[in-house]
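FAQ

Q: What does a record look like?
A: Structure on top, sequence underneath. For example:
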């Protein structure tokens, strides 16, 4: 990376010039190479129009959660504490890996025992690239959307694919 102040050739990723100590952080920003990359880098989570958050308290039972998920046609629901702050997510994967075949009276098991605690989240102003990266790295199909610790929605891989398909 060539320093604009002194012309010194620095290593890619350097934050400051090794010769004059000038700031190089603005030069190391990724640039979109095509329309799809531009969409991912510039569009924000709000563009997906996240589905309204369907929540259950952590003291609710798995049976109640499944009824709510079936009624709402959801693959995951958000779990909140008594103050309404996000504390977990309960998904189909949690049902298969933490409930099925493990608990004989699974209908009465509390969500707090089997939910995924402290899930990765995004905000409405976060870029689609960030959301997609979190989904990819974590292997998630659903991401809670939060503002000030409170769940406001959920985005899914399907939402992302629909958005990208419309634009392409």
């Amino acid at each position: 990376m060539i320093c604009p102040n002194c012309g010194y050739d620095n290593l890619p990723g350097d934050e400051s010039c090794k010769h004059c100590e000038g700031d190089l952080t603005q030069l190391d920003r990724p640039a979109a190479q095509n329309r799809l990359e531009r969409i991912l880098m510039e569009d924000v989570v709000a563009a997906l129009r996240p589905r309204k958050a369907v929540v259950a308290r952590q003291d609710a039972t798995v049976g109640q959660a499944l009824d709510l998920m079936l009624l709402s046609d959801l693959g995951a629901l958000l779990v909140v504490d008594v103050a309404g702050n996000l504390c977990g997510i309960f998904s189909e994967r949690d049902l298969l890996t933490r409930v099925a075949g493990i608990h004989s009276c699974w209908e009465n098991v509390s969500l707090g025992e089997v939910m995924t605690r402290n899930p990765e989240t995004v905000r409405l102003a976060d870029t689609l690239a960030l959301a997609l990266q979190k989904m990819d790295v974590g292997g998630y199909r659903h991401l809670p959307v939060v503002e000030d610790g409170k769940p406001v929605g959920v985005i899914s891989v399907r939402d992302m694919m629909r958005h990208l398909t419309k634009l392409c």
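Q: Is there anything notable about this one?
A: The domain at 45-167 is CATH 3.10.580.10 (CBS-domain).
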